[in-house]
Design goal:
- The protein is an all-alpha fold.
- Among the domains are: about 200 residues, Transferase(Phosphotransferase) domain 1 (Transferase(Phosphotransferase), domain 1), CATH 1.10.510.10; about 140 residues; about 90 residues.
- About 80% of the residues lie in helices and about 0% in strands.
- The protein has a two-stranded antiparallel sheet.
- The longest helix has about 160 residues.
- The protein is elongated and about 230 Å long.
- The two termini are about 85 Å apart.
- The relative contact order is 0.08.
- This is non-specific serine/threonine protein kinase.
- Keywords: ATP-binding, Coiled coil, Cytoplasm, Cytoskeleton, Kinase, Magnesium, Nucleotide-binding, Serine/threonine-protein kinase, Transferase.
Length: about 950
């Protein structure tokens, strides 16, 4: 569920579905009388169909008769803990099923808003927000969720007295948030979930986040030399891996008349195909011979490997047996040496006491009879004082030992305190160094930020300059184009004016020539008129005069036109000179503008290169800033960790100082007690000296001492008998445990042998199956090129034979497993019976000892041991009943598998009958083809 929430944005209809399933799961747990106490997305799984499963019941606890849990520990994940669970640490200690509904409200908040409602940087901050949930709970208003969802979250994240679900799950189920057209609480398991995970198999873990491998070295704990008895419940059992029978799917048989439809129609082709079939059969035979040879070689190798494996297992068995026997002999030798040492100590003590008593008796018998009463009285007082003195000396020795132990503990605590102080000093130095490094990094970061800001400002300034230059370049370019167009228009106008000037010059020259010719003609006419025609008519003169006037008018007009043209030509020449000057000026400006453009281009390239360099520097600076930020966060984390470690060390130092002060106070008290005991001891010595002067009741004391000696001898005999019986019972128990361990080791070796044989058989079968499949594939490929129908029948036949063999192998495997299971149950039953015998044997020995000794303390000890053994026996019986239930379940599964296998056998028989029918059809077709060939030969 956690990966689903991290991969998708959960819409409201998805949240409705998953919340309904969580409500049903929690209701089931609550009806069973338990509280989960750790509801969170990490403990929610999706099955292969997409339905939600609640997991991790490690913190689950049963509620009492009043529906409440009494606990003084805050259990659960900090961000999902309810306020009443937190209050249980301070002595409240009672909460009910409503703590799970609080966690569901936190999960629902996380589904909708993608974050936790009471998250803080520290655990104390988180707990403070949870306790102040009335003020710290904030539902973002910009989130696109309904008002029903908001009311449901508020109903869950409130006080326990007004929390939704406190008065039953119906209060939650009737909430309007769950009203929809798709899902109800009744049809939820039968409906389709919103997300169905894609799985490649039962072991597909692609939907989970990858877990980093733990590279730390594996911890190896030393094997204890003493017998612990941890594995006694598993005596008679063997461990096997997941065993799954191969489910082979049977192929469907083709239609019966498929062969008739594909039957060859020509006899020649049939003969050719038969020849090819014979050749293929020969190749198949050769391949089968090669396969047999290879199988023989493989069998020889497997036999050799099995022999080597058996030899290695025998050697391992011998080695384990030798190790076991060595351990047993070593243990027995230690037990015997310990018993011998104890008996020697008892004998020495008894001898010393007897010698003392005899010496006292002889010494006191030599004294005078008149002081017997005084002696007896003083002897009694002396023995009392000696007992007190011995007790006081023992107390003094104990106090000295305790004082030495306290001194050692004080030295250890002082040493630890010094070490912790030195470690604290190093940590403080490391913290100071880290803080200095953090300040340096912060200064560097500030400097880098300033440089980055300066670079950004320079970059923005350069971009502004670049924009102004580009606008100026565009303006100059437009001006240059405008000047070019004006220049081109003026050049065109100048050309036109030059053409008009040339034409006007030509017209002027033509008019001048005409005028000269007409003047010449007029003069000649006038002369001729004067000479030859003086008598001409006045009308002709008038006509000539008018004509002359017209010619004068035309001449004047021509002169005016010529003057106008000359004036225009001068004006055009002036305009032309102005145009030339303007053109030269424009060309100069054009050159200047081109030079400016080239300079701007170079400047633009420089600015672009600067911009690229600034961008690269900016990217480098940003990467360095990111690296520095990551380093800063890492250093901050390390500083927090070091602070936590420092706080822990300071707490430990404070505790050690408190314990040291308490030890000092205890040491002072013990010294005062020791001084008081020494003072009392001196007083007792004085009383003893005074009492030695009065020896009146010596005979009575001697009689009492004689009786005490007899009682001590009797107690010694009882203690020896008890020690012998305990040693005998212990040796019997250890022998039974050793036998059980030996049987366990043997069973483990047998299990290893069976597993190795099973693996070798599987490997052999798989290799043979692969070889057969390869050969079969090659042969089938060759035959399929010639006769497709025949090849299909052969493949079908082989597949059915493989399935039949596999079914037989599976049947044998199931029978072997059944026998193994029966054997294991017998072993378990025998182990339990032996354990009961040992327990009953111990009970019998304990009762016998109690009758002999009659001591109340020994009786209580034996009764406690008896109760403990009975509890272990009950546990073993419960385990045995649980195993019987498992065995019955496995028997039911086995019966189901046998039924499935019988069904498979029936299907195989049906397939065999179909194969026989197909073979008969094949024979009929071959006979028909041979008959057709005979008829063709006769023809």
């Amino acid at each position: 569920m956690f990966s689903l929430m991290s991969m998708y944005e959960i819409p409201e209809n998805w949240a409705i579905f998953y919340t309904m399933e969580i409500v049903l799961a929690l209701d089931t747990i609550h009806n069973m009388g338990f509280v989960h106490r750790d509801v969170k997305p990490d403990n929610m799984l999706l099955d292969s169909m997409g339905h939600l499963k609640l997991a991790d019941f490690g913190t689950c606890i049963r509620v009492g008769a009043d529906g409440l849990v009494k606990s003084s520990n805050a259990v659960g994940t900090p961000d999902y803990i309810s306020p009443e669970v937190l209050q249980s640490q301070s002595g409240g200690g009672e909460y009910g099923r409503e703590c799970d509904w609080w966690s569901l409200g936190v999960v629902l908040y996380e589904m909708f808003f993608g974050e936790l409602p009471f998250y803080a940087d520290s655990l104390v901050g988180t707990y403070g927000k949870i306790m102040d949930h009335r003020n710290s709970l904030n539902l973002p208003q910009d989130a696109d969720i309904s008002e029903n969802a908001r009311s449901l979250i508020r109903g869950f994240l409130t006080d326990r007295n007004s929390r939704l679900g406190r008065h039953g799950v119906d209060q939650i189920r009737n909430h309007p948030f769950f009203i929809n057209d798709t899902w109800t609480f009744e049809n939820l398991r039968e409906s389709a979930p919103p997300v169905v995970p894609e799985l490649n198999g039962d072991d597909d873990t692609s939907n989970f986040e990858d877990i980093e491998k733990d590279e730390s070295p594996e911890e190896l704990f030393p094997v204890p030399k003493t017998f612990a008895g941890n594995h006694l419940p598993f005596v008679g059992f063997t461990y096997t891996g997941d065993y799954q029978l191969l489910n082979v799917s049977l192929d469907n048989v083709d239609n019966r008349e498929s062969y008739r439809n594909h039957r060859p129609s020509y006899s020649g082709e049939i003969v050719r195909l038969e020849k090819l079939l014979e050749n293929e059969r020969q190749t198949v035979e050769t391949l089968e011979k090669q396969e047999k040879a290879l199988r023989n070689q493989v069998e020889i190798m497997t036999v050799r490997e099995a022999e080597l494996q058996s030899m290695s297992t025998e050697y391992e068995k011998e080695l384990t047996m030798l190790k076991h026997s060595y351990r047993e002999t070593h243990r027995r030798a230690e037990n015997e040496s310990e018993l011998r040492r104890k008996t020697e100590l008892l004998l020495n003590e008894t001898k010393k006491r007897l010698d003392e008593e005899q010496s006292k008796r002889t010494r006191e018998m030599n004294n005078n009879q008149q002081h017997n009463d005084r002696i007896n009285q003083l002897e009694k007082q002396c023995t009392d004082i000696q007992d007190k003195y011995r007790m006081e000396t023992e107390m003094c020795q104990k106090l000295k030992k305790q004082l030495n132990e306290l001194r050692l503990a004080r030295n250890d605590t002082e040493q630890k305190c010094n070490e912790l102080q030195s470690l604290l000093g190093t940590l403080q130095e490391h913290r100071d160094a880290l803080q200095q490094e953090v300040t340096e990094l912060q200064n560097r970061l500030a400097h880098e930020r300033n440089t980055r800001q300066q670079l950004v400002e320079a970059h923005e300034e350069n971009e502004g300059k670049l924009q102004t230059l580009s606008t100026e370049f565009e303006r100059c370019f437009h001006r240059e184009q405008k000047h070019m167009e004006d220049n081109r228009a003026l050049s065109e106008r100048l050309g036109n004016l030059e053409k008009e000037n040339a034409t006007l010059d030509l017209e002027l020259k033509a008019m001048q020539q005409r005028y000269q010719q007409e003047v010449k003609a007029h003069e000649e006419a006038a002369r001729s008129q004067k000479v030859y025609k003086e008598e001409a008519n006045m009308e002709e003169v008038k006509a000539l005069q008018t004509k002359l006037n017209e010619e004068k008018v035309g001449r004047q007009r021509a002169e005016q036109n010529s003057q106008e043209k000359e004036r225009q030509i001068s004006m055009l020449s002036v305009d032309y000179r102005q145009m030339q000057q303007r053109l030269q000026k424009l060309e100069g400006e054009n050159r200047q503008e081109t030079e400016k453009v080239i300079a701007l281009h170079s400047q633009l390239d420089q600015e672009q290169s600067k911009k690229n360099s600034l961008l690269s520097e900016l990217s480098l600076q940003s990467s360095e800033i990111a690296h520095l930020k990551a380093k800063e966060t890492q250093l901050i984390k390390e500083v927090h960790q070091l602070r936590d470690m420092r706080r822990k060390f300071e707490e430990e130092v404070f505790k050690i100082k408190n314990s040291h002060n308490q030890d000092i106070l205890q040491n002072k008290e013990l010294q005062e007690q020791l001084e008081a005991e020494q003072y009392f001891h001196k007083l007792q010595k004085k009383q003893c000296k005074d009492a030695r002067d009065e020896l009146e009741e010596k005979t009575r004391v001697l009689q009492e001492q004689e009786e005490e000696r007899k009682s001590l001898v009797h107690q010694l005999q009882i203690a020896l008998a008890r020690a012998d019986s305990e040693a005998l019972a212990r040796s019997i128990a250890e022998e039974t445990v050793a036998d059980l361990e030996k049987e366990k080791a043997m069973k483990e070796f047998e299990m290893k042998d069976l597993v190795a044989k099973h693996k070798s058989e599987l490997a052999h079968k798989e290799s043979a199956l692969l070889v057969m499949k390869d050969v079969e594939y090659d042969v089938n490929m060759k035959l399929s090129k010639k006769t497709v129908e025949l090849d299909e029948q052969v493949q079908l036949n082989k597949k059915l034979q493989d399935e039949l063999s596999q079914v037989k192998v599976d049947k044998g495997e199931i029978e072997r497993l059944q026998a193994k299971l029966k054997q294991e149950t017998l072993f378990k039953q025998s182990a339990v019976n032996k354990l009961e015998e040992v327990i009953y044997r111990k009970d019998f020995a304990n009762t016998a000892k109690n009758k002999k000794v009659g001591s109340a303390t020994e009786l209580r000890k034996k009764e406690k041991e008896n109760r403990r053994l009975k509890q272990e026996l009950c546990q073993e019986r419960d385990k045995y009943s649980h195993l019987l239930v498992k065995f019955n379940e496995s028997q039911i599964n086995l019966n189901e598998e046998t039924m499935a296998k019988t069904k498979l056998q029936m299907e195989i028989q049906c397939k065999d009958t179909e194969i026989e029918m197909l073979q008969t059809k094949l024979n009929e077709t071959t006979s028909l083809s041979s008959a057709e060939n005979d008829t063709e030969d006769n023809q």
